[in-house]
Amino acid sequence: MIRLLRFLSWRHLKRHCLRTSLTFLGIVLGVAVIVAIAIVNRTLVSSFQHTIELIAGKAVLQVSNGESGVREEIYPVIRDTPGVKDAAPAVEGFLPVVGFKGERLFVYGVDFLADFSVREHQFVGKPFDLDGALDFIARPDSIALTESLSRRLGLPMGAQIILATSRGARSYTVRALLKEQGTAKVFGGSFALMDLPVAQIAFGKEGKLDILDLTIEEGHNVEEVKSRIQQRLQGAAQVERPRQRGEQVESLLTSFRVGLFFVSLIALFVGFFLIYNTVSVSVVQRRREIGTLRCLGMMRRTILQFVVLEALILSFLASVAGVFCGALLAEGALLSVGQSVSNLFLQIDLAKSTLTLSELLLAFASGLGVSLLAALYPAWEATRVTPLESYRQTAWSPRSQRVFRATVLGVILLLFSPLLLFISPPGLGEVGKFTVGVAAMLVFLLGLSSLSPLFILAWIKLLRQCLSRLPFLSWNEERLACDGLSRSPIRAGITIATLIISLAAIFTIAAFVHSVRGSLLSWVDQMVTADLIVSSGARTAGPMNVPLREDLVPGIKALPGVQVLDLYRLIRSTYKGRPILIESFSARASAGVRTLPMAEGNGTEALQQMAAGEGVIVSESFRSKFGKRPGDTVELPTPSGLARFKVLGVYIDYSSDSGSVLIDRSLYKKIWHDELVDAFDLWLAPGADQEAVIRKIKQDYGDKYQLFVSTHRELRDAVVNIMEQSFVVNYAVEIIAVIVAIFSVINTLLASVLDRTREIGVLRAIGATQGQVRRMVVVEAGWIGFLGGILGLIAGTVMSYHHVVYNTKVLTGWTFQYYYPTGFAFLCLILSVALCLLAGYIPARQAASNPIVGAIGYE
Prior knowledge:
Elements: H1 2-15, H2 17-56, E1 61-64, E2 70-71, H3 74-79, E3 84-96, E4 104-110, H4 112-115, H5 130-138, E5 142-146, H6 147-153, E6 160-165, E7 168-178, E8 191-195, H7 196-203, E9 208-209, E10 211-216, H8 222-233, E11 238-240, H9 242-252, H10 254-285, H11 287-295, H12 300-344, H13 357-384, H14 387-391, H15 400-423, H16 430-450, H17 452-469, H18 476-487, H19 489-527, E12 532-536, H20 553-557, E13 562-575, E14 578-585, E15 598-600, H21 603-611, E16 616-619, H22 620-626, E17 633-638, E18 641-651, E19 660-664, H23 665-672, E20 679-684, H24 690-705, E21 707-711, H25 712-726, H26 728-755, H27 757-765, H28 770-812, H29 822-839, H30 841-849, H31 852-856
């Protein structure tokens, strides 16, 4: 076998260097995408866990209640629970550094006298003993920075650092420097320590704690201690191991990670057809070699092994290269994904991406597995013909039964694809249902691709009829191009199938983004009707903004032109152990100007009932995940304990797919003991000067509170920018899929030219010019591009509608309106033809440059 590979395979690969290189690069790109997405998904998960473990220190249990917080008076109750050895309270969060654009500092407020029992903070210089801690605590503007942050910002000991807090910009003095060890390593060294009361004031969390880290006395069972604490809390907080907190955070990213994995499957699917095409062409072009080997006594089994092994060796080498390319691609993808996660979910400290054994196994399993599947059928075809038939030198003339078999397979797959949605096993979760939906899409795509040979023959028949009726011109080159396609519908069908898959994938993503954008903007227009939105730290409420106190209310309300002022608050909480959002505003204050897009129930009535404190309104994603409908009750953990609320309606909300609960601000303040504000919504009086109001707000409060004053238009643009950022990786993967598809077009046309060398030579001998030969091949490429574009758009339309209406619904609970991107559809068709025409240039030039005598003597 080694000799066969060395003398036959190596010689064939060198003779067809360009085609071999294109196939090699196609596999490299496909494997690289799979590896990059796997690294990105693993890094996201491990980064959260690593950050939580570093901050937790020696803690075995943690008491928390999301951003709702834990009342400070509970601290002694937990500390005195039998079995608890040490209890370290803390508050935490991000604060922007004033004067350093984009710099955000993770501030950890601790009780220094209790915290050293749980975390080991290493300080630069003299030991930070009891006297040092007391001196640090005695001065309420003290802050400790990491060494690297101190160097990067030029803030040595004694320097002043200004942070944007809930009370506005405040100055703190650097009185200690931390070595980047343990907790101080999180967020790339952008970490600071404060005394607990000072941090509580900075975050506006007076009387509240974010977390209590606990260690357990020896001899006590962790689960028993956990149960005792939970009984004492009576629903006012949750007790969990640090890893469980990490798992909660991970669940926020489920839909994001699943979406990335879905996109990577497309690249693998495209690679399958490229390899199949290459191996099929290679088998046909070496029929004489195979015939010789069969005449010399080689068994069918050995021929099969030879063809498959050749494909696997090429795939193995390409997979090795794909692993390294995937690692590089992951570095760039993590930058984009990290920004998206920070904007949409929460701040993340991305760990450095590393290549693990799991990614290596995935790379070779995908590369070699797809190559094996793609090579089996062509290899089996090579063993089916007799030695004499193999030895005869003929051009590739596919059997009609192969077209028939492909057509039957295509019809069966098209009929089976919708059945998958109905025969899927009951009890599947969101990810399971999404997986079945994706499988149905891929089966449909495979079915339509299998019909490509039939569409080619029908298209050629139609073209011939049209060309015969067109006067004045002979259309000889076009007729010959039609002959070339009709002679090899299977091979050309594989290329068109590759185009179909690539274009369908791109169109699906484009239509999905178009639908998401349209639905989001429609939602923003209905949900956020304010003329101006005032916030600190970021334009949109979420992980990036700084909540403020109500101190600004009297001044803003008194501004000339301000008719209505409402206060909006957004916090992260949990329900049944899963993360959710709690949103609040004053339904009574904004009753005459605010609307609420509803999925179930009457919005006006629901807001009136909510203003009266009769219950809450839940989002459709909350309904989807927890099965709650109007009339049901929900029990939410609050700082006051478990609180029961009646569900008044279901509203449309795209702020989080984890689920949201909307409550009136007065009831929220009473139960959650929280008066912070994420955004001030302003409705101006008719005829008011909007620019004058903006200038006045910035003049009076802008610098002190680091405010963003956004118009309705600017808020819409910010929402669209965040959405577009989250799809950057998807776009990159789809571009790679198109590149692989173009490789397949070049591959097919090169093989077509080689098969028709003698025919082209005869044409040249009877008077065809080089220009006519080039035009014939380029026109053939154009037909492939046009037919592939049309079928790709058909497949993309069906897939995108299914993805928007079904897949997204089952995974996130969101209902998006489907918006068809008509302009993009025409662009896809034009690009498909244009790229195929460009891809046909190299084979066309090669066909035209073959010497006539050598071409006629070929074969």
